[in-house]
Structure formats: C-alpha cells, structure tokens
Amino acid sequence: MAITDWNSFVGQTDERMAALRKDAPDVAKAFGALAGAAIKPGALDSRTKELIALAIGITARCDGCLAYHARAAAKYGATREEVLEVIGVAIYMGGGPSMIYGAEALAAFDGLSQGD
C-alpha cells in the first residue's frame, strides 16, 4: 500500500521509534551514535550522505528509510532535481523494484520538503 501522507507516516514511526528507544536504550544510543558519525560532514557533506542513504532506502525498499532520509536530504538543502538523479541511479542499480520505490521516494521528498 502506497503511503499518501508522509508527515503522518513519520509521526507514527517517530512514536514507534520512541518506544523502542525507551525499551532498548543501549541499542538505540549506539545506533544514534553510528548515524551521527555516518552523516557527519567529512570528505562528503551531510546533504550528499543523506542522498546516498535515500538511494539505499530505495533499493532496500524501506518506507521508513525513504521518509527519514528524504526529510533529512531536504533539511540539508537537497533539491528535487538532485533527488530525481539519485532515484535514477537507484533504478539503474535496483531495476523494477527501485522504479516503484523511486516513485515513493519522490512522493516522500515532495511531501516532507514542503511540510504537507
């Protein structure tokens, strides 16, 4: 089922993630540290790293990944044109399933970058 309201989806996922962080604090803290270290600017800036994560989310067919990384990519200044190029690379690497999830990623970016 396609997600039509990405902001509601993120809100629901945030609630579930909060419960998981409460019940598994050590794992959640370690994952948060890993995420922070991975996205921290280095040779690549955070925007580029979030676009890479978005591409991986497409090929992994992970709705939550699409939501979180589309939102973060927008936060770091990614443009719709950049997201479309990322989707193109993901389709190249992942074939038909990535075409479907690429469309979902674009819907996520559009919905979350405009605050819909």
UniProtKB/TrEMBL annotation:
Domain Carboxymuconolactone decarboxylase-like, chain residue ranges per copy: 25-107
A Pfam family reported for this protein in Swiss-Prot or TrEMBL: CMD
InterPro entries: AhpD-like, AhpD_core, CMD-like
Protein name as annotated: Carboxymuconolactone decarboxylase family protein
Taxonomic lineage of the native organism: Bacteria, Pseudomonadati, Pseudomonadota, Alphaproteobacteria, Hyphomicrobiales
